[in-house]
Amino acid sequence: MGHIRLYKNNPTAGALDGTEVSSGDGSLPLTFALNAGEGESAAQKAAVRCDAGYSIEGGCEIYLTGSTAAKWALATDDESFSDASLALTFGNWSERLTLEGVATGNAVFWVKASSSSDEQPQNDTSVTLNAEGIVVELDG
Predict the structure, then answer these.
(1) What is the pTM of this model?
(2) Comparing C-alpha atoms, which of 3, 64, 53, 54 is closest to residue 29?
(3) Would you tell me which of 84, 89, 123, 126 could form a disulfide with 66, CB atoms 3.0–4.6 Å apart?
(4) Which residues pair with 1 in a beta bridge?
(5) Structural domain count, the chain
């Protein structure tokens, strides 16, 4: 049975690169270092893909859950964002997105985290990045 997997560390659209994000154990999470007193935002490129020989039937839903999920957002990658600064400025940020055509190559998207100026410094591990879809075996 195939699985949906999430990747970080600047994955390339359609490729098989990136570092797999931990699945449930927190050992290799997607992380952001923000200055809580400054009210900063930062973005990182991420990707979702299926195991070899599988694809997602219909769309792959990407969404955030957790007590501080409201300080996070997601945006699709229209391939014009050459870096995180452009994604932060021009990304169409939302709390949920649907990626079509997810198969064995990276389907790239952006993740943004923000801090607020009234926030105390903390190591917040309350947010989970979720990917859901119907994984099917490819024919042939």
Answers:
(1) 0.93
(2) 64
(3) 126
(4) none
(5) 1
